[in-house]
Design a protein that fits this description.
This protein is of the alpha+beta class. It is about 30% helix and about 25% strand. Bound molecules: flavin-adenine dinucleotide (FAD).
Length: about 350
């Protein structure tokens, strides 16, 4: 996904682009993702990440119709808000503070009393203490978004090479291209966007400190009587898409193991049923898992390598790579062509986030 967004942005700016993609690999995060644009919910106390996330979310307002016009693909951009529900006094107090902070930052954000929550979404848990409501948050369909970004990149002349990159080639402090098992390809710029697999590519001056964190998901029919919504509580959520409830998710440090587990599914179902009790009586239709590329501070790694000219990073998007994909593409596209971006990327420059940097 992030690679497709960078490829599109670079191709739109007139650069010759090749995307190296081995094909669907088990555990790739984008295909597994829920696709929430939870800009005002996910960043927590990180003010810089909040501002970046809001910008990333708002970009879809123009990107969705642009991709539809260019490729005919509807990315399912849905913007009717996300509610973060409190189940005790402490979380209600914490969320009220967040509402105040976000309003102070000029964002639309409301506190909903328990009656408001039940009125808007009949069927929500009676023991709810209220909810933070971010009316401009929403979701996209991640599969459609990846397809559309890649189709638009190809329309602009980008080619896709179905091969895995084994190493980046560097000579005298400058990137010269990449090598696959079978071949090498010369290039003045290489963008590393291999998600959780990014540190595994050989030849990098320092592997980016990204580690796989497994997230499992469960799909259940959306209960009748409750309008489509995205409801969130702590790190559990329910997302309505196509008549289904996509329920997530776990945060598991299990290396590159992308299997689903009974324990993980039980944890997700418990949180989902707490939000919408009617889900308890509906059948689980599908389960799956993906590997998020996490950094320790949850900020992505986007920008130039501090030492190797022509080597760029677009990885480590953690829980919010769909939200930030479009914006990451724009940042990389501008850096490649103008050498600069109007977005303050200093807090996520690779220098600060590398093992030895
Ligand atoms: C369960 C779950 C739910 C999520 N929900 C959300 C959400 O609601 N909202 C949100 O914003 N984010 C969400 N995320 C996070 C989001 O999915 C990720 O941050 C994002 O998909 C990362 O994109 P990526 O392109 O960096 O990585 P991936 O999608 O993992 O892609 C990595 C790519 O690198 C390729 N690759 C690997 N090795 C090589 C190699 N050697 N050579 C060439 N290519 C290679 C792979 O084939 C793959 O295409 C979720 C993630 C999970 C797992």
């Amino acid at each position: 996904m992030v690679g497709a967004a960078c490829a599109r942005a670079a191709a739109l700016r007139g650069l010759r682009v090749s995307v190296f993609e081995p094909g669907p690999i088990p555990g790739a995060a984008s295909a597994a993702s829920g696709g929430m644009l939870a800009a005002q919910i996910e960043p927590g106390d990180d003010e810089w990440l909040l501002a970046l996330s809001v910008r990333g979310r708002d970009l879809y307002e123009a990107l969705a119709p642009a991709l539809k016009d260019a490729t005919g693909i509807d990315i399912g951009f849905w913007r009717e808000g996300i509610a973060s529900v409190a189940f005790d006094n402490a979380s209600a107090n914490r969320l009220r503070v967040v509402v105040a902070q976000e309003r102070q930052a000029g964002l639309r954000c409301d506190w909903l009393e328990p009656d408001d929550v039940h009125e808007r979404w009949p069927g929500t848990a009676p023991e709810c203490w209220g909810a933070l409501f971010a009316p401009e948050d929403g979701a996209v369909d991640p599969e459609a978004l990846t397809r559309a970004l890649l189709a638009d990149a190809r329309r602009q002349g980008a080619t896709v090479v179905h091969a895995s990159v084994e190493r980046v080639n560097v000579e005298e402090g400058r990137i010269t291209g990449v090598a696959t098992v079978a071949d090498t390809a010369a290039a003045p710029h290489v963008i590393l966007a291999a998600g959780a697999w990014s540190p595994r590519i050989a030849g990098l001056p320092r592997p980016p400190t990204v580690e796989p964190v497994r997230g499992q998901l469960v799909m259940i029919p959306w209960p009748t009587g409750t309008p489509p919504a995205i409801l969130y509580a702590e790190h559990g959520y329910i997302l309505a898409r196509g008549g289904k409830a996509i329920c997530g998710s776990t945060m598991e440090h299990v290396g590159f193991d992308a299997r689903v587990t009974k324990e993980g599914q039980a944890e997700i179902l418990e949180r989902a049923v707490r939000l919408l009790p009617a889900l308890a009586s509906l059948p689980v239709e599908q389960t799956w898992a993906g590997l998020r590329p996490m950094t320790s501070d949850w900020r992505p790694i986007v920008g130039p390598d501090p030492e190797v000219e022509g080597l760029w990073y677009a990885t480590g998007h953690g829980r919010n790579g769909i939200l930030l994909a479009g914006l990451t593409g724009e940042i990389i596209g501008d850096l490649l062509t103008k050498g600069d971006t109007d977005i303050d990327i200093s807090p996520m420059r690779p220098r600060q986030l590398m093992a030895d940097g």
